[in-house]
Amino acid sequence: xxRYFIEVAYKGTNYAGFQIQQNANSIQAEIEKALKxxxxxxxxxxxxxxTDAGVHALQNFFHVDTNFFSEHEAINNNxxxxxxxxxxxxxxxxxxxxxxxxxCRFDALSREYKYYTYQNKDPFIADSSFYxxxxxxxxxxxxxxTVLLDYNDFTTFSKKNTQVKTFICELIKSQWMFxxxxxxxxxxxxxFLRGMVRGLVGTMLNVGTNKLSVDGFRKIIEAKDCTLxxxxxxxxxxxxxxxxx
Length: 245
What we know:
Elements: E1 3-10, H1 27-39, E2 46-47, E3 56-65, H2 72-85, E4 90-98, E5 110-118, E6 130-131, H3 138-147, E7 171-179, E8 182-189, H4 196-208, H5 214-223, E9 238-244
Parallel strand pairs: 3-9, 5-6
Antiparallel strand pairs: 1-3, 1-4, 2-3, 5-8, 5-9, 7-8
């Protein structure tokens, strides 16, 4: 049976996360529902990167095995109709056939995230950036971000009750920047743990406000103890921006 990748983007505010779950609405549930309505057939999707409740994505993927999709032109027409069924905060961007053994999760080479904070009250970005009205030292934030590239065991930055077999992640890029009056943390890695990016951001913000030294940040990483990380930053400022194959 042919396999297809489905590229999606979404605003995660109204959803309990990316992956389907009991007693809560999710991105996957909405897309499976739209596919069922349009094709009159049940679909079981596999997702590439799980995002938590409230997290957004400019790009994420599912794959599905089906005979119901057809040639390129028909797929493009069907995308329009599927988007008409989907809520306004979810969009299907592409649907295309891939190799029968392609896997949208395991074949991904990297994922890229951005987390935004702002310091001057602005109602126009309040739902997509974290209001953090404290003086930040960009140089120290950058030092902390660079320190992360020296490590690959991120046990400290994984929330409890996770079922992963390993806490090893390879970071390709880790940096803070000042972008359009916002501080932005940009990180690329081969994989990420549950709550990892928010844990990194929250803990580095303590470095940026001089509550924690860069050496202290290193000790927190090396302790491999998630109770030492700060996961308190909100989800709504986090974006999955790219999944690379």
